[in-house]
Predict the structure of Universal stress protein.
Amino acid sequence: MSGPVGRTVVGYTSTEAGRAAVTAAARLVSALGGELHLVLVLPDAGRGAVVPPDAGYEALLRSSADAWLAEAAALVPAGVPHASHVRRAESAAEGLLEVAHELGAARLVVGSGAERGLGRIGVGTAASELLHSADLPVVVVPVTAVEGDDDGVDGGGPALSRVTVAVGTRPGADVLLEEALALARASGAPLRLVSLQVLDLPGRLDRVAAADTADAHLRGVLEEARAAVGAAQVQDALLVRGRDVADAVGGLGWLPGEVVVVGSSRLAAPHRLFLGATAARLLRAVPVPVVVVPRTRPQGGRP
């Protein structure tokens, strides 16, 4: 996995979700450095087609793509280096991954569907495919992440206000923690450690034992974080309990420009993402961008 400073690829669609993704991606580049790459994926109609695509339609589609990318570029604040790309692929996820690999990107950013009645983040097709196949961190951005945020990159406030990392009670969170620490270190943002404990186990003794386990684990993670970046950068460490993930997360406060970092499931193939049940529920419960990190690193440190 590459470090936080590097290229950030964002998938753009001319929708509310696409605009939110570009705004959040620009914030990350402003905070971390590197370059922003705006990518619009068009369907690869020519591959395997029985009838060659109409030349007039293709010209119109390309013209529209250029106009959409101009819309995206207009959302990027001055001072954030960026480039635009049109990619042909059979799916948006495939095209975005191809560009990310060619550029050696540090992360991929995508917008989410706005299923507000069902939660904060409604994961669309492209995001879902990336969250079950990507080999680099994927940032999923809800529309709510930029609503009412008048203190953006150009507003004088910090581009990245805080990094929250959701740590579990099982061992093996070193890659997750290192990614969160790297983001905090590169941006100067404070780090908040959160351990979610869902108290839906049968019997009071089971709940008490689970809470004690989470407490002990969180203390160990906190000590590791403080040793790595210094106590001053670790702003808080919280054990949050609830009937379910949404209930537990509901008590947390969120800042404009904050991100939350979660890990991939242990069911994932080596160096790949696979969103587990807890992470999926958390993804739908928070109003800020979620950074999903592969649980293992490829050989040689490539994303």
Remarks:
- The CA atoms of residues 108 and 138 lie 5 Å apart.
